[in-house]
Amino acid sequence: MIPASALHRVRVWLALFVAGLVLSGATAFALPTETSLLARLIGDGTRMESLWPAMAHWISKVEGGVRASDAEYPFLFYGTDWLAFGHLVIAISFLGPIRDPVKNLWVGEFGMTACALVIPTALILGPIRGIPFFWRLIDCSFGVIGIIPLYFARREILRHR
Questions:
Q1: Which candidate in 50, 70, 93, 98 could, as Cys together with 32 as Cys, close a disulfide (CB 3.0–4.6 Å)?
Q2: Are 145 and 118 in contact (CB under 8 A)?
Q3: Contacts of 97 (CB under 8 A, 6+ apart)
Q4: pTM more than 0.85
Q5: Is there a contact between 36 and 64 (Cβ–Cβ < 8 Å)?
Q6: pLDDT per residue over 41-77, tens digit each?
Q7: Rounded to an integer, what distance in angstroms lies between the CA atom of residue 69 and that of residue 137?
Q8: Is 22 within 8 Å of 88 (Cβ atoms)?
Q9: 44 falls within a domain
């Protein structure tokens, strides 16, 4: 039996992971608006251009592609709607572990595996899609950051199991 204090810590770690999934999923719904804002903040012609020109240019290039796609082919964003939906569904699957972390330990381990798979996915598919290396590292960081709360939750569960 997990002590109440440990159970609370596990639930907090899992809730942080769920919040990250929901936030990253929700941002996929408003891609045109968000990339436009990002380009105005750190794209070409901003201070970022003098600090990190490659990043500023990449952000502006992405924003231009999103804007052109939105104008001519808005149905392409249906794919990012499904991406967002997938994030939200995965977040819902973590309600079981929040309720009963011991019984649903496997869900957290599944999440850890998914986080680990972000890295080879970004590193293999990124070059195929023309994604700059620095941006692939940013993508990889989502897997690394995501695995942290799941690791601590798992460690706490196994310590008291």
A1: 70
A2: no
A3: 14, 104, 105, 107, 108, 153
A4: yes
A5: no
A6: 999 999 999 999 999 999 999 999 999 999 999 999 9
A7: 25
A8: yes
A9: no
Alpha carbon distance 156, 60 (integer Å): 43
Number of residues written out for the chain: 161
36 lies in some domain: no
User: Quick count: other Cβ atoms within 10 Å of Cβ 157?
Assistant: 22
Q: Does 38 reside within a domain?
A: no
Residue 154 lies in a domain: yes
Range of the domain at 99: 4-29+76-160
Q: What does the DSSP 8-state code read for residue 46?
A: S
Instruction: Please count the structural domains in the chain.
Output: 1
Helical (H) or strand (E) element with 20: helix 4-27
DSSP secondary structure string for all residues of 117-154 = HHHHHHHHHHHHTT--HHHHHHHHHHHHHHHHHHHHHH
Q: What is the pLDDT of residue 161?
A: 83
Instruction: Measure Cα distances from 122 to 63, 82, 129, 130, 136 in Å.
Output: 20, 19, 10, 11, 6
Q: What mean pLDDT is reported for the chain?
A: 97
